[in-house]
Amino acid sequence: MTIEASTGAPAPYPQTERTLTRDLPGVGGAIKVHPEDFQVEELPLYPPIGQGEHTFFEIEKVGISTFQAVNRLARALNVSPQRISYAGLKDAQAVTRQVLSVHGVPPAAVLALELPNLTVRWAERHRNKLKIGHLQGNRFVVRIREVEESALPVAQRILDILVQRGVPNYFGPQRFGQRGDSALLGRAILRRDARVFIDGFLGSPHANEHPDIQEARARYDEGQWDKALELMPPYLSDERRALQTLAQRNGDYGRAFASVPKRLKTFLLSAYQSELFNRVLDARLDTLDRVYAGDLAMKHPGHSVFLVEDESDEQPRAAQFEISPTGPIYGFKMIQARGHQGDLEAAVLAQEGLNQEDFRVGDGIHAQGARRALRFRCQDTSLWFDQGLVLSFWLERGCYATALLAEIMKVPLVEEALPEL
């Protein structure tokens, strides 16, 4: 296995070589032509109990992101957005249903809301706030347009392979932001390079953003910080705060870096961890359904991890999808694989000039690390033709539908641009 050199930026997604079924042609086409072409329903981990200080409620949103929905709900309820919690982020260019919670607001007030492109379906009390990851998974119905009905057999053949062998558990493009730079920013955080971080955070105009934002970033790149601040939209409060600090502190990049919230830095660091995982998966792509001595295998379901000592004993379980090999979410507490997989993981980290202790960044920012299965199971799959190729399936939490769609379509999938809040 060869580990290619990298600058830390995520590779274009998907690349043909990043698909398990690359020997089969993709059907092409386009997704999210209309919001209703991409439908997602969140499957909660538990129901609300009907009492408590928090109100759980399900929303259906069309054409807006989870962040936008939270901000609109907060304004309508006259509360801080920090009082509204969610289990996971959902696509913007889609019709999605997800559960949120709000503290100190009665269900009747939530049910009374009437907001554009957002409907409250039900609301009930619960004792605790909803937390990230508190969901079983997501059910998807996706229409791939601009394909002919003759593509159906090819798509079914690909799907059959994925059901048997598993889908490569890549982190999808949404993990790396609409600018595609989240991993690079996370890399700068880990290296404690304030100048590189601030230049990337505030500069480098991107075509996927509003023209006003592009102009603000261009002015930053020219050193016109006051003009950049004037042009930067109010809802980009983190960027504005960093610009203000930079201008007021006469170019003190360290202070500007310190002004960026910990929550955002932690998120960006996780994007860098995701890119490193993707790189390890690249090298194990053809063997994601095999286990070898030294692998740390994950049990399905349950997610407990154990060391594979005798591959001949464990491979039958992998073939039955009872276990899967794992890759690294690097961190200072991550359990290291052994054997060939351990060498691979060490090589990726060494290429970056890092060790696991480097993930103790400081200032309250750190990454403990974890193990992530190299593949995931697509369940309850159905495929039919109706104004395009329609695919229905459900995935466990943390798995990206884009990884499945990449295998079937084999065309570039990018994160959509977001409108203003």
Descriptors:
single chain; 421 residues; alpha+beta; Pseudouridine synthase; eight-stranded mixed beta sheet; four-stranded antiparallel beta sheet; 13 helices; 21% strand
Structure description:
The protein is of the alpha+beta class and 421 residues long. The protein has a domain of 96 residues: 2-Layer Sandwich (Pseudouridine synthase). The chain is 33% helix and 21% strand. It has 13 helices and 16 strands. Strands 1, 2, 3, 4, 5, 6, 15 and 16 form an 8-stranded mixed beta sheet that branches. A 4-stranded antiparallel beta sheet has the order 9-8-10-13.
What is the CATH top level name of the domain at 42-137?
Alpha Beta
Globally, the shape reads globular
Percentage of residues in DSSP E strands: 15-25%
CATH architecture of the domain at 42-137: 2-Layer Sandwich
Largest sheet: 8 strands, mixed
Query: CATH superfamily assignment of the domain at 42-137?
Result: TruD, catalytic domain
User: Could you estimate the helical fraction of the residues in percent?
Assistant: 25-40%
Lay out the secondary structure:
Blueprint lengths: L37 E7 L9 E9 L3 H12 L6 E3 L8 E9 L3 H5 L6 E9 L8 E10 L7 H14 L1 E2 L13 H9 L3 H9 L8 H11 L3 H7 L5 H12 L4 H7 L2 H23 L11 E4 L5 E3 L3 H9 L3 E7 L9 H13 L8 E3 L2 E2 L3 E4 L1 E2 L2 E7 L3 E8 L4 H9 L12
Parallel strand pairs: 1-4
Antiparallel strand pairs: 1-6, 2-4, 2-5, 3-4, 6-16, 7-14, 8-9, 8-10, 10-13, 11-12, 15-16
Task: Briefly characterize the structure.
The protein is an alpha+beta fold and 421 residues long. It has helices spanning 66-77, 107-111, 152-165, 182-190, 194-202, 211-221, 225-231, 237-248, 253-259, 262-284, 311-319, 339-351, 401-409; strands spanning 38-44, 54-62, 84-86, 95-103, 118-126, 135-144, 167-168, 296-299, 305-307, 323-329, 360-362, 365-366, 370-373, 375-376, 379-385, 389-396.
